[in-house]
Amino acid sequence: MKPDTRLTHAGRHPDKYDGVVNTPVYRASTVTFPTVGEMGRRFAHRFDTPYYGRYGTPTTNALEEAVAAAEGAAFGVATASGMGAIAATLLAVLAPGDHLLMVDSVYAPTRKFCDSALSRMGITTTYYDPLVGGAIADLITPATRLVFCESPGSLTFEVQDIPAIAAAAHKAGALVALDNTWASPLFFAPFTKGVDLSIQAATKYIVGHSDAMLGTITTNERALYERLKDTLVMYGYSTGSEEAYLGLRGLRTLSVRLERHQRNALAVATWLAEQPEVARVLHPALPSDPGHALWARDFTGASGLFGVLLHPGTAEGVPAMLDGMTHFAMGFSWGGYESLILPTTGSIPRTACPWPHTGPSLRLHVGLEDPADLIADLRAGLDRLASTPEGSTL
């Protein structure tokens, strides 16, 4: 099936539900068994059939099946949030004494989890340059169990050479995990590039309406799938059926929404790149971006999230710019229908290589509004920035 057809049909079984198109919401914690023998049989097949609410319901199982199909995987696991998916992956794969290679441009809460929870467990983390490519082989030790990627990088949008990293990791016997949220299941096919575990903060584009927290993990390895499932059950990372239903609803329209997000974001990013107040736009789909060649090779599209660097010496004007926005709201998360903008200055930690830009930075998520209105809103904001004493020199 083509991707759009998979999104429409994956995880749907109307024949099981009297012809009902959408898998119903199963609000269930307890599953009962008629005999001791049946209870034992169900436990032996707990990954594939309802056994207990934390292992999943028919609703969560439908989401897992659908997301796995969309990403080209055999197995899927749903979690209560994107961070839950990241934590479950790390905890399922790593053990005390193991070594983790973590990309330096990773989502900040992932970094915090490595530096706190994993460190307390005796797991060592080394951060690596997102642009290292196949040279990551020089950082792999006999204790390296996992290489974790995020491409494009969080806040700074570096594109990683995932095939080269995966080849080096697999040669050394390490697994590769990827936070694939920016690309969604549609714009980057992780398992054709050597990834072993793909993570989605499904809160973002899969849900798509800013109304549910959700995460997913997909893999082609049955043993990894069962380890992930047991880990999330043990730690209580399971998702609720209501959230899974909202994820399924969002998944069905993912393609048409992403097409609009992509078109709008490219229009806004192209315009911003031409403004005198802007030092650089961080968007790999722009031909001027350093990661454009890798993006064009490995990705089939771009989402609505990108970064903007302002000239040094304009930090004082950023509050005036952002406080007066009309269509861009300030808020965390992203992936919904609405446009968002955040100041990210001072929020770009680096360990392996310093972040070179000294001026203010912003993160934009371009929603489904008319891009002309969004551009007008940004132009007014940049005018407010330029009108401050610092900005007047631009």
From TrEMBL:
SUPFAM superfamilies: PLP-dependent transferases
Names of the cofactor(s): pyridoxal 5'-phosphate
Coiled coil location: none
InterPro entries (UniProt xref): Cys/Met-Metab_PyrdxlP-dep_enz, Cys_b_lyase_bac, Cys_met_metab_PP, PyrdxlP-dep_Trfase, PyrdxlP-dep_Trfase_major, PyrdxlP-dep_Trfase_small
Pathway given in the UniProt record: Amino-acid biosynthesis; L-methionine biosynthesis via de novo pathway; L-homocysteine from L-cystathionine: step 1/1
Keywords associated with the record: Lyase, Pyridoxal phosphate
Family from the record: Belongs to the trans-sulfuration enzymes family.
N6-(pyridoxal phosphate)lysine: residues bearing it: 204
Protein name in the entry: Cystathionine beta-lyase
Reaction(s) catalysed (UniProt annotation): an S-substituted L-cysteine + H2O = a thiol + pyruvate + NH4(+); L,L-cystathionine + H2O = L-homocysteine + pyruvate + NH4(+)
GO term, biological process aspect, one: L-cysteine catabolic process to pyruvate
Database matches in Gene3D superfamilies: Aspartate Aminotransferase, domain 1, Type I PLP-dependent aspartate aminotransferase-like (Major domain)
Highest rank taxon of the organism: Bacteria
One Pfam family, short name: Cys_Met_Meta_PP
A GO molecular function held by the record: cysteine-S-conjugate beta-lyase activity
Organism in which the protein naturally occurs: Pararhodospirillum oryzae
